[in-house]
Design brief:
Length: 269
C-alpha cells in the first residue's frame, strides 16, 4: 500500500485528488498540508471535504507529515513547491508536482535534488493532454517547414499565469521537432503594425474567462489547408486521476527527474 501526502489539500485540485484517492486501490492518504493560517489547519480533511472522517488532520508544514508518506502530491505555488521538492528529495522519497511556472533554473535545481529521490514535474497531469504533447511533436516533425504554427489556450478567470504551462510545453514540443528555440521564435500576442508573420515564429494566444477548465489547440496552417489538434478538459478530475496514476508509478522508479511522458511511455527515444 502506497502512503500519500497531499499539499494544497484545501484547494480545488487538492480536494479532488483526496476525494478520488479514497476510491483507488493500492494508495491511501496519510497526510494533508496547507499554508500556515489556513482555516482547515487542525481539522480532519475528510470531514472538511464532506467525505467523513479520514483520521488525517491538516498540518501547516510538510515537515510535520513527511515521515508518514511514501509519495507527496503537490498542487500549490511555485515557491512552496520548490521547497517541498527539496525537502522530499532530502528525505529520499517521491514527489509528484502539478504546479506550473518553473523556470529553467528551477528545473536545474529539481534535477540536482532528484539524485536523492524520485521527482515528477508536469505542467498538466491529464492523460489526454500528454498524448497531445506527443501528437503535436509528431505532426510538426512530419509537416516540417511548410506549415506555420499557432497555439491557442483558454482558462478560467482565476488563472494567474499566462500562457499556461501546458501551452508552453506544447510550444517547446513543436519547436524541438523543428529544431527551433521557443525563446527565440515565440510570439505572445500581436498588436499594431507588427509586420508580416515570419515563417519560423510560433504564435501563442491566450483567452481568460468564466469557469473554463482548460482548452488547448495547436494550429498547423498551410496553403489551402489547416490541421488542428485540440484538447478540452471538462473536469479537473482528469488532472487528479493523472496525478494519482503518476504517484503510483513514481514510487517504483529509480531516483531521478520525470514527467508524465515517462509515466505513459510517450517520451521520444
Amino acid at each position: 500500500m502506497v502512503s500519500a501526502i497531499v499539499c494544497g489539500a484545501g484547494g480545488r485540485m487538492g480536494g479532488r485528488i483526496i476525494t478520488l484517492l479514497t476510491k483507488v486501490e493500492g494508495i491511501a492518504l496519510k497526510g494533508a498540508v496547507e499554508r500556515p493560517g489556513h482555516p482547515l489547519i487542525g481539522k480532519d480533511i475528510g470531514e472538511a471535504l464532506g467525505l467523513g472522517p479520514l483520521n488525517v488532520s491538516v498540518v501547516d508544514d510538510l515537515s510535520k507529515a513527511l515521515d508518514a508518506g511514501d509519495v507527496v502530491i503537490d498542487f500549490t505555488h511555485i515557491d512552496s513547491a520548490l521547497r517541498h521538492i527539496e525537502m522530499t528529495m532530502a528525505a529520499g522519497k517521491a514527489i509528484v508536482v502539478g504546479t506550473t511556472g518553473f523556470t529553467e533554473e528551477d528545473m536545474a535545481k529539481a534535477r540536482k535534488w532528484a539524485a536523492n529521490g524520485c521527482c515528477l514535474i508536469a505542467p498538466n497531469m491529464s492523460v489526454g493532454v500528454n498524448l497531445l504533447f506527443k501528437l503535436a511533436y509528431d505532426v510538426a516533425k512530419i509537416l516540417g517547414e511548410d506549415f506555420e504554427i499557432e497555439i491557442l489556450e483558454a482558462h478560467h478567470n482565476q488563472k494567474k499565469d499566462a500562457p499556461s504551462g501546458t501551452a508552453m510545453k506544447l510550444g517547446r514540443q513543436v519547436a524541438a521537432a523543428l529544431g527551433r528555440d521557443l525563446d527565440a521564435v515565440g510570439v505572445y500576442g500581436r498588436k499594431g503594425m507588427v509586420g508580416a508573420r515570419t515563417k519560423e515564429e510560433i504564435g501563442m494566444q491566450v483567452i481568460r474567462g468564466g469557469d473554463i477548465v482548460g482548452e488547448h489547440t495547436v494550429f498547423f496552417i498551410g496553403t489551402g489547408e489547416r490541421i488542428e489538434l485540440t484538447h478540452r478538459a471538462m473536469s479537473r478530475d482528469n488532472f487528479a486521476r493523472g496525478a494519482i496514476r503518476a504517484a503510483l508509478w513514481l514510487v517504483n522508479q529509480p531516483n531521478g527527474l520525470y514527467d508524465m511522458q515517462d509515466v505513459l511511455g510517450l517520451k521520444e527515444k
